[in-house]
Design brief:
Largest sheet of chain A: 6 strands, mixed
Strand content of chain A: 5-15%
Structural class of chain A: alpha+beta
Radius of gyration of chain A: 26 Å
Strand order of the largest sheet of chain B: 2-1-3
Oligomer: heterodimer
Number of helices of chain B: 7
Helix content of chain B: 55-70%
Helix content of chain A: 25-40%
Number of strands of chain A: 12
Strand content of chain B: 5-15%
Chain lengths: ~450, ~130
């Protein structure tokens, strides 16, 4: 009996390996696909019936998302019962996000993750149930089950970054430049740059790892002394607000594949991001170029990037190759700091388990932008990181006037002069065509 | 309820036309955004009528006490078999009536939780 099972397992695994060629799948801890195929495959198999439909009975008229919406309201025990009703229900009820929600809603952090959310739920609520025999055989494989939603969901959870997505590295790298140099060549023109050698003295480089940070709450008073703000970013105008300043610094940590899909940083601030451990892939687009696949709402309050990070690479990265407006890309490794100019779209993905520290800031170079942003009529929706959204503009402006009187007027004047000379150069027929470059 | 304001027209899969007051259509962004007749080739007249009933009742929600509205909702779903509920979910989803989608989905989930494996077979109409 046991040897029969072993034979079945071996055949299943071999079948799986043959099918999965062409994708860069995770080699460690991949989730079972249960044999789900994308809908397109059905069209290559004329005469084939989609077992997704036959197995759902009259539930088949609903889309995958709606079926999952119903299943999302069913408790764990009954998801288990449903799994025995048909192959189709077996596949649907194995959808990991269902079990993740059950674990998080019911256990609220008091659990130890065990291979998958489903196994975690079962081993917590039914500790006497033996999940160990599942080590080699994590699921049944069903035939003729076609579903784009479930396939895509499984694929994204199991894909690794393809090498060709990591090839382009066109950011400017600098080491040991002066603050003036940085301000003139990067901060003022609002261009990204990768800075090397700023973190050599940081205690964080030796001390910070997952274990050290896990007990974060006790360590917060000392964490500040493990790093220092690189010299380029010490002008920090929001500091005039003291404790009423918006949130401005974060320690960011996550496994390979985690990260952030396309967004623009809040309050029109600029940012720096220092990698302490691991490495991150960055893709940046300038403020006036909306990345493919991203749909910001007209007022800027909502940024809809409906796809996950991996999906963006799969579906949209390729199109940037032939675009004139190519993004700036790089891999930022431990010990390197990237400068993200204000207003730039950016996407970040951890290529391995990573720890980083990031701060947002306002200097004189983007003070006017920030004031404009805070002044906007829909400021209460857009402004983030502070409880007092509506009054932030007044408070900040007044505080700046008190600490640095005349600065705002000075900067406004300079901006006007720049605008006028720009238009002069444009209308001067002797000068001819000009180019934007970034 | 005053009947001034525009009317929205919905067409069922059988070609039947239903007229809806703007105040009732407020529950459905799809209806509110429509310029012309909204054609719903996947929704039968029977289901469309039920959806409109739901919208009418909920348009008066501010005049109705919460308990009464809740028992009306329960009544509304309890008189529907699983096939009807599923059709309602599909139609409400197309018309973006979130509260009706939620109501019908919760009802189905509740039915599932009350059934054995064999009863589920019957419930979803397997042949």
């Amino acid at each position: 009996m046991f040897s029969e099972k072993k034979k079945f397992i071996a055949e299943t695994q071999q079948f799986e390996e043959e099918e999965e060629e062409g994708f860069n799948l995770k080699s460690s801890n991949p989730l079972h696909s249960y044999g789900v195929q994308p809908l397109g495959n059905l069209y290559f198999n004329p005469g084939s019936v989609n077992s997704r439909n036959t197995g759902l009975g009259n539930l088949q008229i609903l889309s995958d998302e709606l079926v999952l919406e119903i299943l999302g309201l069913v408790d764990g025990t009954h998801l288990g019962v449903l799994a025995t009703v048909s192959k189709s229900f077996y596949v649907f009820t194995s959808h990991e996000p269902l079990w993740r929600n059950l674990v998080l809603d019911n256990l609220k952090g008091r659990f130890l993750f065990n291979r998958s959310w489903k196994v975690t739920y079962i081993s917590t609520f039914y500790p006497s149930f033996d999940v160990s025999w599942n080590t080699h055989f994590s699921g049944l494989r069903v035939r003729n089950f076609y579903s784009d939603y479930l396939f895509q969901s499984w694929l994204c959870a199991n894909l690794e970054m393809k090498p060709e997505w990591l090839e382009r590295d066109n950011i400017i790298r600098k080491r040991g430049i002066s603050v003036d140099d940085f301000v003139m060549n990067f901060e003022e023109p609002n261009k990204p740059v990768l800075l090397e050698g700023c973190m050599d003295n940081w205690d964080a480089m030796r001390k910070w790892d997952r274990d050290y940070l896990v007990n974060l709450c006790e360590k917060i008073p000392t964490l500040g002394s493990d790093y220092e703000v690189p010299v380029y970013f010490r002008e920090d105008l929001f500091s005039v607000l003291g404790n009423e300043r918006p949130d401005y610094r974060w320690i960011i940590s996550g496994p390979a594949g985690s990260g952030s899909s396309f967004h623009i940083d809040p309050n029109s601030t600029s940012a720096w991001n220092a990698v302490i451990k691991g490495s991150k892939k960055w893709v940046l687009f300038p403020p006036d170029v909306v990345p493919p696949g991203v749909h910001p709402s007209p007022d800027g309050a909502e940024v809809a990037c409906p796809v996950s990070i991996i999906e963006w690479f799969m579906n949209f990265y390729g199109s940037t190759k032939n675009w004139k407006k190519r993004p700036i890309e790089c891999i930022c490794k431990a010990g390197e700091v990237i400068f993200v100019p204000n207003g730039w779209w950016h996407l970040v993905i951890n290529l391995e388990e990573s720890i980083a520290i990031t701060q947002n800031y306002v200097s004189r170079r983007n003070l006017l932008n920030v004031l404009d942003f805070l002044k906007k009529p829909n400021a209460s929706e857009l402004v983030s990181g502070t409880r007092d959204r509506i009054n932030l503009y007044e408070k900040f402006k007044n505080a700046i006037e008190r600490r640095f009187p005349g600065t705002i007027d000075e900067l406004t004047l300079k901006a006007e002069e720049k605008k006028m000379s720009f238009w002069d150069s444009v209308t001067d027929s002797k000068i001819g065509a000009f180019k934007f470059s970034f | 309820m005053s009947s001034s304001g525009r009317k929205i027209i919905l067409k069922s899969s059988e070609g039947e036309l239903f007229e809806v007051d703007e105040a009732v259509a407020l529950l459905s962004p799809t209806m509110m955004e429509a310029d012309n007749v909204i054609s719903l080739p996947k929704v039968t007249s029977e289901i469309l009528e039920k959806v409109i009933d739901y919208c009418k009742k909920h348009a008066e929600a501010y005049e109705t006490d919460a308990d009464e509205l809740q028992s009306w909702d329960l009544d509304f779903v309890n008189h529907s078999d699983s096939g009807t509920l599923l059709d309602l979910i599909a139609a409400a989803h197309d018309l973006k009536i979130e509260c009706l989608v939620d109501l019908a989905c919760s009802t189905i989930a509740g039915h599932i939780e009350n059934k054995t494996r064999e009863e589920i077979f019957e419930y979803f109409g397997y042949n």
